[in-house]
Amino acid sequence: MKDLKQLLEQNRAWAERIKASDPEFFRTLAKQQSPKFLWIGCSDSRVPSTQLVGMAPGEMFVHRNVANVVVHTDFNCLSVIQYAVDGLDVDHIIVCGHHGCGGVKAAMDNVQFGLIDNWLRHVQDVMHVHKDELAQIRDESERVDRLCELNVIEQVVNVSRTTIVQNAWERGQELVVHGWIYNLQDGLLRDLGITVDSAESLAPAYRRALPGLRRTLTGSLVQ
What we know:
- The chain is globular, with a radius of gyration of 19 Å.
- By secondary structure, it is α/β, with parallel strands linked by helices.
- A hairpin with a 4-residue loop joins β4 and β5 (188-196).
- The protein contains 10 helices and 5 strands.
- The protein has a 5-stranded mixed sheet.
């Protein structure tokens, strides 16, 4: 109970600081939200989305889950994407993973924890797609970090393939999907070089992000 009391006290102090600098902040915020960004990130407590980019409440719509996975049967994630795209009219969707992700490492090590094993199966699928590249990395931590990056790239593809995003592009809505990685060691974000702004740009963007993987998104060899 002591810890919870401290959280409430910290909340009051935070709210007072905000009101001291901008007396109308919460009244204005309560009327509407109009973020231009949807952030899909990991649930890891060390990766606080809005703080990483220095944004205030109301400036970013956020969905987080273990290992920042986007699955076409996850109606929670899909509902967030649909509301962000169709309701809030966001301009950018950012999929952000982080180095040293515990979920990714558990998937790579094939460690069993229970129910979450089924969720991390999606990360293992990514690992199997890129097994040749990963096998060339001898250092274990570097191999995990690379899988973290590859996982982000594959999740950008998954976001771009949703009917929500595909329909938005078809009707001419300006919407860009990005893949970023966060480094816990220095607190910096890095663009992974995959940016998708249309259905037609998806396959070329994927190939540019993974020049060593000579396959299209359908699995056929690139000529």
